[in-house]
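Changelog-linked ticket: NAP example.
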Amino acid sequence: MSTAAPVSLVTGGNRGIGRETARRLAGLGHTVLLSARRLEDAERAAAEPAPGVSGTLVPCRLDVTDADSVRALARRVEEEFGRLDVLVNNAAVNYDTARRAVSVDLDEVRRTLETNLFGAWRTTQEFLPLLRRSSHARVVNVSSESGSLADMSGGTPAYGVSKAALNALTRKLADELRAERILVNAVCPGWIATDMGGPGGAPVDQGATGIVRAATLPDSGPTGGFFRDGEPLPW
Ligand SMILES: NC(=O)c1ccc[n+]([C@@H]2O[C@H](COP(=O)([O-])OP(=O)(O)OC[C@H]3O[C@@H](n4cnc5c(N)ncnc54)[C@H](OP(=O)(O)O)[C@@H]3O)[C@@H](O)[C@H]2O)c1
């Protein structure tokens, strides 16, 4: 299936902010690969009725910690679409509010980095040849103010360090890809009521807004930035 519509991939698209982002991009006419660790979860999320979704949601399997899974999806996207226009690295785990840096089990920290940092890194590397075939490639790393070094305090050690590292990766990739006009930005969605965010946060549509904005930036848009609600956040 080759398409003139932008082709977008959202990791962790089966629930929460990822699902809302996939729907919103589809609503803008993108062909969206709604990916999930389990194919049936992606199929369920893509089949759920969502008002305003006019584009195509293509359910697919992607575990960002599994190199074979990432490679297999990249091959499929190459065969079916020949390029990728937007990559949203949204998948993440372990908002570890009960832990402290002084005592957290480092295996837990490693597992968290495997998804939140290396998952995004691996997926970006694997899809880069396809992003390079796009005229308007965008990479959005879904980060968190918890990863901001400017006011970093104790607690939430694995998650906070993983997002700080993701922010650093954002700067590295943005700089290395600037000359190729691939825009790479980090976005904090704010506190959003999802399984991860828990009750009390803002609704998911609010969380997706800044991500969709970064995914659909004009060619003159920023790269190497860290944003929430379209406004720069301190690193
Ligand atoms: N909610 C907030 O308040 C908040 C605040 C700041 C930043 N964020 C960030 O926003 C993003 C989305 O968070 P959320 O609140 O929507 O979280 P969520 O509801 O917990 O959803 C997380 C998603 O990531 C997926 N995932 C986890 N490990 C994966 C893997 N190895 N491969 C592929 N997918 C995987 C999950 O899939 P399964 O269903 O298979 O587990 C799920 O779809 C995350 O990057 C998070 O750090 C959230």
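Closing comment: Example verified and attached. The pocket of NAP is lined by residues 11-12, 14-18, 36-37, 41, 62-65, 90-93, 115, 119, 142, 144, 188-189, 191-192, 194-197, 201 (CB under 6 Å). The two ends are 40 Å apart (CA to CA).
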